[in-house]
Specification:
The protein is mainly α. The protein is 78% helix and 0% strand. α4 packs across α13, α6 packs across α14 and α7 packs parallel to α13. The termini are far apart.
């Protein structure tokens, strides 16, 4: 591993990596499946900054550990050659652009009493995002699964479970990794082979008591960041039950608007926590909610990454990672269908989704932000006509 790192390190600087993640955080649309696909395309295939094995290990860790998938993978890729400093700075570069965007939207939302135009934009963007995600899931599957029947079986199982439950079940990811390890390595038990792969402990909140609103926000969003697995899809039901049902911080319409804001802004979907925090307690609430959401996954990544690097070339871990990766891609593919059922509501949105996928299939280098902009304009033009 040390020789591989030595070969890669001169090929890019930390500042180049930060510039990339700053741009991805500013222009990267499509949710976790699209974002992790962009990282693979740009950093592994085109630039060659990150090795295929490192990417797979990072994706596996991001899936089996709690927290937002894309942000955690970004932190891991920053760790590969630049350790804790790289993980810290890449995480900030990736998250901050969308954080400031949702804070600005929160300010406008409160100032003008709502975001009626968001529904029109989301009408078009939501459909286009489905096409982007579908192409991203296809690329991930063909690249990482190939013709392996066992991995395709895992893919199908996790896709089905995700569609049926509309959530990701963490133990299934780990179980799939163990299954591939057992089938391929036929290990002798009692050697502690797998236990070393999961050094992640429970991340607690650094708050005492719940008398202050900001403390309550910090406690709730720390729990969300520390105990919710998978993509932005997984965190939505958790947020709804706590924010609307338990604490009554927002009403149903405000929460739906918050999810829409997350989908029409670039970067990680769970940055909607910044928008929600702003509606609850202004800019301090946005800062506390966002930090509480992302700090747990950052700490877990920094603690777990050295173990992945140390054991990364062992056949047992490689088999385990292959199983986890297939499970992750299956869950992401299932999420595409779940989101499609919510975003595709008529023939126009169906045409937008299919058209987006067709364009990306035909023109491999077509910029996704350009597609999102076009879909937003279509939504602004068509949606008012359909609702009057």
């Amino acid at each position: 591993m040390n020789s591989d790192a030595a070969i890669r390190r001169p090929s890019y600087t930390l500042w180049q990596l930060l510039a990339y993640f700053l741009r991805l955080g500013t222009l990267g649309f499509g949710g976790p499946v699209a974002l992790v696909g962009y990282m693979h395309r740009d950093l592994v295939e085109q630039r060659g900054w990150i090795g295929e094995a490192d990417y797979k290990e990072g994706l596996a860790l991001a899936q089996i550990a709690p927290g937002p998938l894309a942000a955690q993978l970004a932190m891991y890729l920053g760790y590969v050659d630049h350790r804790a400093l790289g993980a810290t700075l890449t995480g900030l570069a990736f998250v901050l652009p969308s954080f400031f965007m949702v804070v600005a939207l929160g300010w406008a939302y409160q100032l003008y009493g709502g975001l009626g135009w968001v529904q029109a934009v989301f009408y078009g963007v939501g459909a286009a995002v489905i096409g982007i995600m579908a192409i991203g899931a296809h690329k991930l599957a063909t690249k990482n699964i190939g013709r392996d029947k066992l991995l395709w079986g895992i893919f199908a199982l996790l896709a089905t479970v995700t569609i049926a439950t509309q959530s990701e079940i963490a133990m299934l990811f780990i179980g799939c990794g163990v299954l591939v390890w057992l089938v391929r390595c036929k290990p002798h038990f009692g050697q502690g082979t797998v236990t070393s792969l999961w050094p992640v402990g429970v991340v607690g909140a650094a708050f005492a008591g719940e008398s202050n609103l900001l403390i309550q926000i910090g406690l709730f969003f720390t729990k969300a960041g520390a105990f919710v697995f998978g993509s932005g899809l997984a965190i939505v039901p958790f947020l709804y039950s706590g924010i609307v049902t338990d604490h009554h911080w927002l009403n149903d319409k405000q929460f739906v608007d918050a999810v829409a804001v997350a989908m029409i802004t670039p970067g990680p979907v769970v940055i909607t926590t910044g928008f929600i925090g702003y509606l609850i307690a202004g800019f301090p609430g946005a800062c506390v909610a966002s930090a509480a959401t992302f700090v747990p996954c950052y700490l877990i990544t920094v603690l777990a990454a050295p173990h992945f690097k140390k054991y990364g070339k062992r056949p047992a871990l490689i088999a385990f990672v292959h199983g986890i990766t297939a499970a992750a891609i299956g869950a992401i593919a299932g999420s595409v269908l779940v989101l499609a059922m919510r975003s595709i509501t008529d023939l126009i949105t169906a045409a937008l989704a299919i058209g987006t996928a067709a364009l990306l299939w035909r023109f491999k280098k077509l910029p996704e932000p350009l597609i999102v902009l076009g879909a937003a304009l279509i939504g602004l033009a068509v949606y008012p006509l359909l609702n009057h």
